[in-house]
C-alpha cells in the first residue's frame, strides 16, 4: 500500500458516498470471463530499506565508468556532468511537472525550453529549434520524415556510409511504411537523382572526418534535395556549424551535453532548422509572447502541427519531448559557457591527437591517414579488434568500437573517442596495453 | 515582471564550472582543422557563474508546478506521486554511468533488472513478450503498429487502414498515419463507448488494426471489449491496446486476456516515474507470441547464469526504433516502483484510483454535467456546456482553479465532449485533497453567477496572466536572438 | 578563480571607483613585516571534473556500510535513511540559508525547527525542546552545565558507569573549568551527598539495560539533584519516555533519526526539558507568534539567554545549531510516523533477540543475563574480542564494540546492535562466523 | 495564510515510507520489556504520506531565502556561494556511510583527506597543528580557550581573566566564561580598533588571553596587531584568533605570522560550506607547537603508507569536546573547496571579497554614515543614526530590503556602533548585484523622507509581516501541543 493515503475510514467514507459496499461494485462492467481472479505473479513488495539494498546490490554488479577507463564514443561520450546539473534538474518542481499545458504555472519549464531552443539554434547555426526529441537516432528519423513529407514524389534517402548505422536503421524503420528507400553512399559523386528526398551526412562522421560536408550540402541542394546533417554538439563549439554550410536540418544526439550515459537513455535528440522548416518540425515548440499586461512569458506554440490537434495529419505522432534531459543540457551549456565548451572540446582534441600520434608509433595508423579530426578517430588494428578489446577490458579499459561490426568494409577499424575526462596517463596506459597485446 | 532568461544574466568573461585547461600537448585547433572548418560565429551561450545558474534555475523552478507542489488532476496523464527512492536508484553510478556499448558481461545487474521488468510487464499485461525500448507512449504506439504491419506483411496481407474511436488520443491516428495507414474513425455510442454496430460496418479485410484505449479517454470501461475483439479478429485484424489508462485496471483485468494483440504501457503514468516537464517517459510494448519475431532490435536474451546478450539476429524484426535499449533511467524507476508495490499493491493502486475518481465525480456531479453514466474508472469527463451558457468556458474554470493552488484538469479533450474538463485524481491523493478540489469546483460554479470576472481574469497570482497564444503562433519568436531583437525594436 | 564573477573589466571599474590602481592599496594596513609574500603551499587547483575524480577515488578507498555488515551501535546506528530525507533537506533554500535572523524570509527553517522541537518534546516526554545541539555527547555536556549553573554550591556530577564514556568525557571537558568533579557510579545506592548537582543516566544504557531508571531518578530528586537522562530516540518509540519517569533533562544523540553516519558527524544532539528549565536551555529556541495581521508565524525566541545578547552571562557560548540535521530528523520522523518508528524499533528488537538467543546457544551469554533489552545488548566473549572482531572484519562483518576499551571492568564484553537494516541471514552469518572463530 | 505545520496534515492511519514489518521471529515487546517500561503515551508524530511530506517541505523551502535564492550580505557570516560539487562529494557512500567505530584500516581514503585538510589549514593559518573536531566557531573557541587554560595550568600558571574587545562577537565573552574565566572588555579607539593604551592598562599577570578577531567585526584590520601581540605575550598571556573574518586575509597574511597562538576557522564561512539554516558548520582549531599536546582527543596520526590511527594516549590533552572526530560531511566539502581554489584561488578570494566590500561602501557612503575611516576589509558597518533621526531605524531599512528581493544585512551588531547595519557582500557576488544592492539602499534612503510607511510596514510580500517577538518571549509556545491548545482556546 505504499504511497496510497486511504485509511479504512477514508475508504468507508467514500464507499458510503457512492452508496456501495465495496470497490468491486465499480468494476462490475468488466466482463466476468476475463476478470483476473488471482493476484499478479510479480515479486513481493519490499519495504524501502529492502528495496534500497536490492537496487544497490544490482547496481554494484555493474562496472561503471568510475571503474572502467572508457574510449568509447559514437554519439555517446563519457563527458563530465557538473554537479549543479543534477542538483537543479532534480528539483521536484521541474522533475514532477508534466508538459506545460497551463503556461501560467509552467513558466519554469517553458523558459528553460526556450533557452534550450536558443542554444541549439545558435550552436547548429540554424534559424530555429524545438523542445527536443527522444534521442539522436530518432531525430534523424524525424528529419527524414520531414523531407519525405515535403516532397511526396521523392522517396529516396541517401545516407553517408559514415553516418552512425543506428541513425540510418531508425530512419529505415520510421520511413519504410511511407515507401521510402534508403541508399548508402560513400561520397558526393553518388548524390544524384530527382527521386532523392534528402541526403543525410554526419559531422564529424563515424571515422572522425569533417571536410566533406560543404560539397555534400552543395550537391544535395543542386539536385533539389534536403541536406540533413547529424552533428556532435560539443564538436560544434570548435567547428563551423552545419547551418553555415547551408544545411537545412541539423539533428544530433544530445547526451554529451550534461546527460549521464545511462546505457543510452534517456538522453535527447536535438533539431535545428532553417526558416522554411519551422512549421514542419515535429514535437513541442515554445515561443515567446506577452500577457494582457504586456509581461513577457512563454507558451507552447505552433501546435497546429501536432497530433493532439491535427491527429492523423500531424507532422509526427510525437507527444512527449525529453524536456528534463534538455533542461540538463541547458544548465550544462550555461555552466560551461562558450569558453568552457570550447575548452572541453579542445582538451579532448589535444589528448586525442596525442593518443593518435602514440598509436601511430605503435603501428596503429589512422584511417584515413591525413583527414583532420577532433577527438574521435579511427585506426587500423593489426589483428582482431574484438581480441584487443577483450585484452583491454581485462585490464579495466573500455577500448574503442569495433567498426567491423558496423560495416563489413571496416574490418579491423577501431574507433576511439577521447574526452576531457581522460588524462595523458590514461592515453599512455592504453598505448602500453596495446603494445603488450601486440607482443603477447 | 517578465519571466527572465539565463541570457539576461550573461556578462562577457564570466565563467561557470571550472573545466580542464588545454595544455598544448598536441597542438591547437589551427593545427588540426583547416580554416574553413574553424568556427568563427558566436556560440550564443550565456557567460555566467555557477551562482548565477543556480539562482536562475532555482527561480525558474519556483515558477513551475509539479506533483511535488500539489494536486495535479490532469486527466489522461496519471499525475500520481513519484517516489523519491526511485530517483535515487536511477542515479546510482552502476545504472547511470554505463556506456551503451559496454559489453553485456560488464553490466549483469542492470540487465537482470531489465529482464525482470520485462517479465513483470508481460504478466501485468497478460502478454507473452516485451520490449522496453520505446521512449514514450507514442513511440510505443508506432513500434506496435509497425509490428502489426510487419506481421500482416509476413502473411502476405497488405491491409491499408487502422481504426480509431473518435474519443482516442491524438497520438493514435497520428501513429497510424506515420506507419503508413489510412485512418478511419469509429464513433462513440450514447454510452461513451465504441459503437459496436459502427465498428462492424467498418471492419473488413482492409483493416489492419483497431487501436483502443480501455478504459477509454472518457474514463469508461469498454464493456463490450470481448465483442469488439471478436469482431476485429474475425475480420483478420489485430487489436492494439493504448495503455495510457492502464492505471485503472492493474491486477483486475489484463489486455492480453481481453484479446489485445499488442499493448504499450506508459511507465511515466502507471508506474509512477516522473514526467519531467514533458519527458522522458517510457512506453514499453508487449505482444502475443505470434508477434514476438517482429519486436524491435535488439532483444535482450540470456539469463543470470549463462549471461546476457543483445540479439540482433532477428530477420523479421521491424528494425531499430531508437538508439540502444530504452530509457534506462526511467525503467530503473519503474522497476523500483514495481518492487515497492507487489501484486497486492498494484491491485490496490487500481482500486483506489477508481474509487477516488468515482468519489470525486459524486461530489461535483450536482454542479457539473457528466455526459455518460457511471461508474467511471480512474478519471471522468465533465461537459461544461451549461457553465458556458452562463458565461464561463471550461478554460475559465480551469484557470480559476490555479488561484486555489491546484493544477487545472485537461480541457477540451476528448474532442467528443463539448467544453470538456477531464479529471483524474489518481490513487495517491488524499480524501481531503479530493474534497478540497470538489469544494473549489463548486465555489467556482457559484462565482460564474456572482463574480464572473474572477474567472475571466484568472489566474490572479501567477508571474504572468493568460498569455497571448495567437500572437505567439502568428509571429513565432522561438529563440533568444529573435526575442532580443524584437524587444529591442519595441523599446 | 572558480566561483568568482569578476572579469578584468569589473575589477577595473571597481578599482576606478575607489581611485586606486590595484587591490594592494586595500591591504596597506597590513604590517609589512608579516605580509605573506609567497603563495600558500596548498595543492594546485583542480577543475571540477578532476576534483570529482579525485574525491571519487578517495571515497572508493573506504569500505562503507553498503559493503560491510555492521553490528556497531553505541549511539550511532546503521539505520535506513529514506530517500525523501536527502531529496528535501538538500534543497538549496534550506541548505544555503543561515540562522533565521529575519523571520519573514525564513519561515521554512523556523517552522521546521518548531516541528522538530515538538517531536523531541513528545518523544522524550518533556515540556519543551530547542533547535538542536552539535551531537549527543556535547548535549550531555550542556545539560551538566545547566545543572551546575542552577546550583552553584553543588559541584559533583554522578555518571552511571553505563553511560557512553564519550558523553562523560565531554562533560568533563566542558565542566572542569567550572570546578566540577565527576564520579562514576554503578547504582542507585551511590547517589548521595548535598554537593551533587546532577545524576546522569543512560536509557537504554551501554549494556542495553533499561529497568534501573525510575529508582535512579527518584533517588536523584531525593537528594535535590537534577536527573539528566541520555536516551536513544528510536528506543523511545517503544519505551516509557524518561520525562514520564520524572527526568528533568533528557538529551541524546540524534543520528539514528534520518542522519547518515558520516564517521560521526555532522549529526545532532537533542534536549528536552521540564518547564522550569525552559529559559535555561542553551542554543536557539523557536517559538510561535503572530504578525500584525494575526497570521501565525515563527521566530527565534527567549534570546535573552544567548551569547549575542548576554555575552559572558549567556547560558552557553553556542551560536549555531545543527539545523539541517534536525531538519533531516524532522522529515524522517514525519515519513515514519508513530507506527513506522515503532516498527523500526520492533524489527530491530526482534532480530536482536533472535541473535542473542543464537549467540547464547553458541556460548556467548548475555551480560547481565536476565535484564530486559531492545536491540542493543552485550555478551561475554570466550576469548579476545579484538581478535574476534578482526576475524569478522576479514569476512566483511563489522562486529560489535569491544567494551573492554570503554572500561577495564568490562574485559571480554562485546556490545552488539541490530538495526532494521540487518536481516535474519545477517544474524545467522554472524553466528556462523563466531562459531568458525571459536573452532579455529 | 498561516505558516503550516506538518502536524496539520496528519490523518490517523496514514503512513509515509514503507518500513520492514515485524515477523514475530523472537516474540514481541511484551515478551521483552516489563509493562512499566512499555510506552503508553502518544509519540506525537504526524501520520502522513510521503507525498504529504514532500509537498510540505517543498512548500516550506519556498518560504526560505538562501544563497541559492539571492544576495545574502549578512555581515560577519560570509554567505558566499556554496559549490554544488562539494555537496555531491559529501554524499558519496565512502564518506557518508561509514560508522565512527569502524577500524581506521577500513577508511584510508577519508583519513587521507582529513590529514590533508589539517595540513592545508595549518598552512593557511600559519600554525603548527590542527584539530578538525570542533563543530562550529563557538565550539572552536571553547576548545581553544580550554587549551590555553590547560597550557597555562601545565606551567603552574593559574590566570583568571580573558580580555575581549568591545566589538567582539558575543561568543568570545560567552566562551571565556564557559571556560571559567572572568571577562574584561577592552574599548575600541576612535579608529574602531583595539585601544592599545587601554589594552596595556588591562594586561597583567592575571590575563590568560586576549581574543581578537582580525579584521574585526567592524571590518577593520587591527593594524597594531604586532604591538598587541607583543603586549599580550610580554605579560605572559596568549593570543586567540577568532577566524570568523578570515575570508579577508587568505593568502595575504596569516594569524600565525601575526603572533596568534590559537586560531579557529569557520569552514562554513571561509571555506564555502553551506550554513544549513544555522548549522552544521565546522570550527577547526589550529595551534602553535607549544600547545599541540593540549589538542582534544583523539588526534589523527599516521600516514598513507603506514596507516592511520586515532591517538588517545595524550596525557596533556584537554580531553574530548565531542563524539568522534568532527563534522566529516562539512570537512569533505571544505577539502573540495580547497582543492578547487589552490593557492592563487584562495588569494583571489580574499582580494575580491575586500575589493567588493570597499566598492560597495564607496557606492553607499554618500547616503549612509560609515563611522570609521577605510579601507575596510571584507565587510563594513554603517551607522544609521542620521536615518533614525529622520524616522527610520536600521531594522526598518533592513526589512525594506526584503521587498527588493535581498536578504537584509546584520543589524544592531557590533554593539559599539549605534543603529548598526553590517554588510558583507562576499567575493562571489557580481558587480551588478552589488550595484543593485547599493541602488536599493539609496532608494530606501529617499523613501525615508518620501514615504516612510513603506519602510515601517516592510516587508510587504512575505508570507508573514513583522512578527510579535515580545509576545513569543513573554508567552513561549515552543511546541505543537502547546500551540494547538492555545489556538483552540482562542477560536
From TrEMBL, chains A, C:
<dbReference type="Pfam" id="PF02347">
    <property type="entry name" value="GDC-P"/>
</dbReference>
<dbReference type="InterPro" id="IPR020581">
    <property type="entry name" value="GDC_P"/>
</dbReference>
<dbReference type="GO" id="GO:0009116">
    <property type="term" value="P:nucleoside metabolic process"/>
</dbReference>
<protein>
    <recommendedName>
        <fullName>Probable glycine dehydrogenase (decarboxylating) subunit 1</fullName>
        <ecNumber>1.4.4.2</ecNumber>
    </recommendedName>
</protein>
<feature type="domain" description="Glycine cleavage system P-protein N-terminal">
    <location>
        <begin position="2"/>
        <end position="432"/>
    </location>
</feature>
<dbReference type="InterPro" id="IPR023010">
    <property type="entry name" value="GcvPA"/>
</dbReference>
<dbReference type="GO" id="GO:0019464">
    <property type="term" value="P:glycine decarboxylation via glycine cleavage system"/>
</dbReference>
<comment type="function">
    <text>The glycine cleavage system catalyzes the degradation of glycine. The P protein binds the alpha-amino group of glycine through its pyridoxal phosphate cofactor; CO(2) is released and the remaining methylamine moiety is then transferred to the lipoamide cofactor of the H protein.</text>
</comment>
<dbReference type="InterPro" id="IPR015422">
    <property type="entry name" value="PyrdxlP-dep_Trfase_small"/>
</dbReference>
<dbReference type="InterPro" id="IPR015421">
    <property type="entry name" value="PyrdxlP-dep_Trfase_major"/>
</dbReference>
<dbReference type="InterPro" id="IPR049315">
    <property type="entry name" value="GDC-P_N"/>
</dbReference>
<dbReference type="GO" id="GO:0004375">
    <property type="term" value="F:glycine dehydrogenase (decarboxylating) activity"/>
</dbReference>
<comment type="subunit">
    <text>The glycine cleavage system is composed of four proteins: P, T, L and H. In this organism, the P 'protein' is a heterodimer of two subunits.</text>
</comment>
<keyword id="KW-0560">Oxidoreductase</keyword>
<comment type="similarity">
    <text>Belongs to the GcvP family. N-terminal subunit subfamily.</text>
</comment>
<dbReference type="InterPro" id="IPR015424">
    <property type="entry name" value="PyrdxlP-dep_Trfase"/>
</dbReference>
Automatic annotation (TrEMBL), chains B, D:
<dbReference type="GO" id="GO:0005829">
    <property type="term" value="C:cytosol"/>
</dbReference>
<dbReference type="InterPro" id="IPR015422">
    <property type="entry name" value="PyrdxlP-dep_Trfase_small"/>
</dbReference>
<feature type="modified residue" description="N6-(pyridoxal phosphate)lysine">
    <location>
        <position position="269"/>
    </location>
</feature>
<protein>
    <recommendedName>
        <fullName>Probable glycine dehydrogenase (decarboxylating) subunit 2</fullName>
        <ecNumber>1.4.4.2</ecNumber>
    </recommendedName>
</protein>
<dbReference type="InterPro" id="IPR015424">
    <property type="entry name" value="PyrdxlP-dep_Trfase"/>
</dbReference>
<feature type="domain" description="Aminotransferase class V">
    <location>
        <begin position="151"/>
        <end position="276"/>
    </location>
</feature>
<comment type="subunit">
    <text>The glycine cleavage system is composed of four proteins: P, T, L and H. In this organism, the P 'protein' is a heterodimer of two subunits.</text>
</comment>
<comment type="function">
    <text>The glycine cleavage system catalyzes the degradation of glycine. The P protein binds the alpha-amino group of glycine through its pyridoxal phosphate cofactor; CO(2) is released and the remaining methylamine moiety is then transferred to the lipoamide cofactor of the H protein.</text>
</comment>
<dbReference type="GO" id="GO:0030170">
    <property type="term" value="F:pyridoxal phosphate binding"/>
</dbReference>
<feature type="domain" description="Glycine dehydrogenase C-terminal">
    <location>
        <begin position="350"/>
        <end position="450"/>
    </location>
</feature>
<dbReference type="GO" id="GO:0019464">
    <property type="term" value="P:glycine decarboxylation via glycine cleavage system"/>
</dbReference>
<dbReference type="InterPro" id="IPR049316">
    <property type="entry name" value="GDC-P_C"/>
</dbReference>
<dbReference type="InterPro" id="IPR023012">
    <property type="entry name" value="GcvPB"/>
</dbReference>
<keyword id="KW-0663">Pyridoxal phosphate</keyword>
<dbReference type="GO" id="GO:0016594">
    <property type="term" value="F:glycine binding"/>
</dbReference>
<dbReference type="InterPro" id="IPR015421">
    <property type="entry name" value="PyrdxlP-dep_Trfase_major"/>
</dbReference>
<dbReference type="GO" id="GO:0005960">
    <property type="term" value="C:glycine cleavage complex"/>
</dbReference>
<dbReference type="Pfam" id="PF00266">
    <property type="entry name" value="Aminotran_5"/>
</dbReference>
<dbReference type="InterPro" id="IPR000192">
    <property type="entry name" value="Aminotrans_V_dom"/>
</dbReference>
<keyword id="KW-0560">Oxidoreductase</keyword>
<dbReference type="Pfam" id="PF21478">
    <property type="entry name" value="GcvP2_C"/>
</dbReference>
<dbReference type="GO" id="GO:0004375">
    <property type="term" value="F:glycine dehydrogenase (decarboxylating) activity"/>
</dbReference>
Amino acid at each position: 500500500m505504499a504511497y496510497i493515503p486511504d485509511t479504512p475510514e477514508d475508504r468507508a467514507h467514500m464507499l458510503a458516498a457512492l452508496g456501495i459496499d465495496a470497490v468491486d461494485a465499480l468494476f462490475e462492467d468488466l466482463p466476468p470471463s476475463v476478470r483476473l481472479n488471482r493476484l499478479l505473479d510479480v515479486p513481493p513488495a519490499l519495504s524501502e530499506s529492502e528495496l534500497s539494498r536490492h537496487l544497490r546490490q544490482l547496481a554494484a554488479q555493474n562496472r561503471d565508468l568510475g571503474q572502467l577507463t572508457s574510449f568509447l564514443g559514437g554519439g555517446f561520450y563519457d563527458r563530465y556532468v557538473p554537479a549543479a546539473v543534477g542538483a537543479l534538474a532534480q528539483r521536484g518542481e521541474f522533475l514532477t511537472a508534466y508538459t506545460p499545458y497551463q503556461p501560467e504555472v509552467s513558466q519554469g519549464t517553458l523558459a528553460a525550453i526556450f533557452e534550450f531552443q536558443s542554444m541549439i539554434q545558435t550552436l547548429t547555426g540554424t534559424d530555429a529549434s524545438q523542445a527536443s526529441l527522444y534521442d539522436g537516432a530518432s531525430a534523424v528519423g524525424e528529419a527524414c520524415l520531414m523531407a519525405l513529407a515535403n516532397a511526396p514524389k521523392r522517396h529516396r534517402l541517401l545516407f553517408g556510409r559514415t553516418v552512425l548505422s543506428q541513425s540510418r536503421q531508425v530512419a529505415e524503420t520510421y520511413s519504410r511504411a511511407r515507401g521510402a528507400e534508403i541508399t548508402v553512399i560513400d561520397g558526393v559523386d553518388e548524390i544524384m537523382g530527382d527521386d532523392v528526398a534528402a541526403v543525410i551526412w554526419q559531422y564529424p562522421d563515424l571515422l572522425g572526418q569533417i571536410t566533406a560536408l560543404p560539397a555534400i550540402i552543395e550537391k544535395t541542394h543542386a539536385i533539389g534535395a534536403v541536406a540533413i546533417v547529424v552533428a556532435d554538439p560539443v564538436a560544434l563549439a570548435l567547428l563551423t556549424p552545419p547551418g553555415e554550410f547551408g544545411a537545412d536540418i541539423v539533428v544530433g544526439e544530445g547526451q554529451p551535453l550534461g546527460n549521464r550515459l545511462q546505457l543510452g537513455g534517456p538522453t535527447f535528440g536535438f533539431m535545428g532548422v532553417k526558416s522554411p522548416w519551422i512549421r514542419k518540425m515535429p514535437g513541442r515548440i515554445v515561443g515567446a509572447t506577452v500577457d494582457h499586461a504586456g509581461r513577457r512569458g512563454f507558451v507552447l506554440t505552433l501546435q497546429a502541427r501536432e497530433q493532439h490537434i491535427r491527429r492523423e495529419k500531424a507532422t509526427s505522432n510525437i507527444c512527449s519531448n525529453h524536456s528534463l534531459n534538455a533542461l540538463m543540457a541547458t544548465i550544462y551549456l550555461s555552466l560551461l559557457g562558450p569558453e568552457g565548451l570550447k575548452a572541453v572540446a579542445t582538451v579532448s582534441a589535444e589528448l586525442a591527437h596525442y593518443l593518435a600520434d602514440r598509436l601511430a608509433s605503435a603501428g596503429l595508423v589512422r584511417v584515413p591517414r591525413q583527414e583532420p579530426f577532433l577527438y574521435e578517430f579511427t585506426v587500423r588494428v593489426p589483428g582482431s579488434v574484438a581480441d584487443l578489446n577483450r585484452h583491454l577490458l581485462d585490464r579495466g579499459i573500455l577500448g574503442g568500437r569495433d567498426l567491423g561490426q558496423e560495416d563489413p568494409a571496416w574490418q579491423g577499424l577501431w574507433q576511439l573517442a577521447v574526452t576531457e575526462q581522460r588524462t595523458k596517463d590514461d592515453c599512455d596506459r592504453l598505448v602500453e596495453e596495446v603494445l603488450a597485446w601486440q607482443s603477447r | 515582471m517578465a519571466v527572465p532568461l539565463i541570457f539576461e544574466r550573461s556578462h562577457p568573461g564570466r565563467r561557470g564550472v571550472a573545466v580542464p585547461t588545454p595544455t598544448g600537448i598536441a597542438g591547437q585547433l589551427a593545427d588540426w582543422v583547416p580554416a574553413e572548418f574553424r568556427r568563427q560565429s558566436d556560440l550564443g551561450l550565456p557567460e555566467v557563474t555557477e551562482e548565477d545558474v543556480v539562482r536562475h534555475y532555482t527561480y525558474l523552478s519556483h515558477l513551475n508546478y509539479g506533483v511535488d507542489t500539489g494536486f495535479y488532476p490532469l486527466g489522461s496523464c496519471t499525475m500520481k506521486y513519484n517516489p523519491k527512492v526511485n530517483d535515487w536508484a536511477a542515479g546510482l553510478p552502476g545504472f547511470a554511468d554505463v556506456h551503451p556499448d559496454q559489453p553485456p558481461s560488464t553490466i549483469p545487474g542492470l540487465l537482470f533488472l531489465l529482464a525482470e521488468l520485462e517479465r513483470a510487464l508481460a504478466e501485468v499485461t497478460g502478454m507473452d513478450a516485451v520490449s522496453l525500448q520505446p521512449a514514450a507512449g507514442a513511440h510505443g504506439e508506432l513500434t506496435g503498429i509497425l509490428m502489426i504491419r510487419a506481421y500482416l506483411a509476413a502473411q502476405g496481407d497488405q491491409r491499408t487502414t487502422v481504426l480509431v474511436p473518435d474519443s482516442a488520443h491524438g497520438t493514435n491516428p497520428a501513429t497510424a498515419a506515420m506507419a503508413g495507414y489510412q485512418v478511419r474513425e469509429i464513433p462513440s455510442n450514447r454510452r461513451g463507448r465504441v459503437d459496436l454496430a459502427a465498428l462492424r460496418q467498418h471492419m473488413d479485410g482492409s483493416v489492419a488494426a483497431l487501436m483502443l484505449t480501455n478504459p477509454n479517454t472518457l474514463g469508461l470501461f469498454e464493456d463490450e471489449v470481448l465483442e469488439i475483439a471478436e469482431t476485429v479478429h474475425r475480420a483478420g485484424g489485430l487489436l492494439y491496446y493504448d495503455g495510457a489508462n492502464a492505471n485503472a485496471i492493474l491486477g483486475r483485468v489484463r489486455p492480453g486476456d481481453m484479446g489485445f494483440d499488442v499493448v504499450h504501457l506508459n511507465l511515466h503514468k502507471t508506474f509512477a516515474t516522473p514526467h519531467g516537464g514533458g519527458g522522458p517517459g517510457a512506453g514499453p510494448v508487449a505482444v502475443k507470441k505470434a508477434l514476438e519475431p517482429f519486436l524491435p532490435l535488439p532483444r535482450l536474451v540470456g539469463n543470470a547464469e549463462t549471461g546476457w546478450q543483445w540479439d540482433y539476429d532477428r530477420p523479421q524484426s521491424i528494425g531499430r526504433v531508437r538508439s540502444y535499449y530504452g530509457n534506462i533511467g526511467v525503467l530503473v524507476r519503474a522497476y523500483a516502483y514495481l518492487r515497492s508495490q507487489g501484486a497486492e499493491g498494484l491491485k490496490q493502486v487500481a482500486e483506489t484510483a477508481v474509487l477516488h475518481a468515482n468519489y470525486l465525480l459524486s461530489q461535483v456531479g450536482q454542479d457539473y454535467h457528466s455526459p455518460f453514466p457511471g461508474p467511471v474508472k480512474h478519471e471522468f469527463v465533465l461537459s461544461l456546456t451549461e457553465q458556458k451558457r452562463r458565461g464561463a468556458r471550461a478554460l475559465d474554470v480551469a484557470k480559476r482553479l490555479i488561484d486555489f493552488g491546484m493544477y487545472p484538469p485537461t480541457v477540451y479533450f476528448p474532442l467528443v465532449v463539448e467544453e470538456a474538463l477531464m479529471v483524474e485524481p489518481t490513487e495517491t491523493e488524499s480524501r481531503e485533497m479530493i474534497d478540497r478540489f470538489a469544494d473549489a469546483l463548486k465555489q467556482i460554479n457559484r462565482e460564474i453567477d456572482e463574480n464572473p470576472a474572477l474567472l475571466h481574469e484568472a489566474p490572479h497570482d501567477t508571474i504572468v496572466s493568460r498569455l497571448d497564444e495567437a500572437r505567439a503562433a502568428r509571429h513565432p519568436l522561438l529563440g533568444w536572438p529573435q526575442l532580443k531583437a524584437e524587444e529591442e525594436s519595441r523599446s
